[in-house]
Amino acid sequence: MPAIGERVGRVIFITSQPQELADHAKLLWQCESLEFLGDPSNALSAHFNAAYDSGIAVTDKGGYAQGMQQPAVLVFKRGPDDTPHITAPTLIFMWATEPGLMNLGGASDRPKCC
Questions:
Q1: Per-residue confidence (pLDDT) for residue 114, from 0 to 100
Q2: What is the β-pairing status of strands 72-76 and 91-96?
Q3: Euclidean distance between CA atoms 32 and 87, whole angstroms
Q4: CB atoms within 10 A of CB 3
Q5: Is the residue at 49 inside a domain?
Q6: 75 part of a folded domain
Q7: What is the tally of structural domains in the chain?
Q8: Which residue range is the domain that position 13 belongs to?
Q9: Got the DSSP string for 62-92?
């Protein structure tokens, strides 16, 4: 994944946990070149769902005051000057876990990281 950041843009991992735990995961997984962002309010999930109908699920889970965001991937097209479109990003790929009985409420079939 570091090659993605070096060649085409930024890779940002967003979690429903506080920033301290996001920073700890970054160190634990040895992903120093990637960005980890804690978003306990799930505001980014709500934004992406409203703006792109991305289907990012937020489920009730103990220890998460606003719920836990399920895994999702969103890829945006870069601008002609090699920067992401800030005002109206173009979504070119989207995937989100759909929690259900077959994947134990989203707890299984998660992608591997780093």
A1: 47
A2: antiparallel
A3: 28
A4: 9
A5: yes
A6: yes
A7: 1
A8: 2-101
A9: TT-TT-EEPPEEEEEPBPTTSSB-SSSPPEE
Q: Write down the pTM of the prediction.
A: 0.71
d(CA 82, CA 76): 12
| pLDDT tens, residue by residue, 28-53 | 988 887 888 899 999 999 998 998 88
- Here the contacts of 50-55 (C-beta below 8 Å, separation 24 or greater) are 52/91, 52/94, 54/91, 54/94, 54/96, 55/94, 55/96, 55/98
Please report the pLDDT score of residue 80 as a whole number.
Answer: 62
Q: Splitting the chain (114 residues) into consecutive groups of 10 residues, what average pLDDT does each group show?
A: 56 87 91 86 92 88 87 74 60 78 58 52
Evaluate whether 97 touches 106 at the Cβ level (below 8 Å): yes
Q: Are the C-beta atoms of residues 66 and 89 closer than 8 Å to each other?
A: no
Buried b (16+ CB within 10 A) or exposed e, 33-49: ebebebbbebebbeebb
Q: Are the CB atoms for 67 and 60 separated by under 8 Å?
A: yes
Q: Report pLDDT for 9.
A: 59
In a domain, 51, yes or no: yes
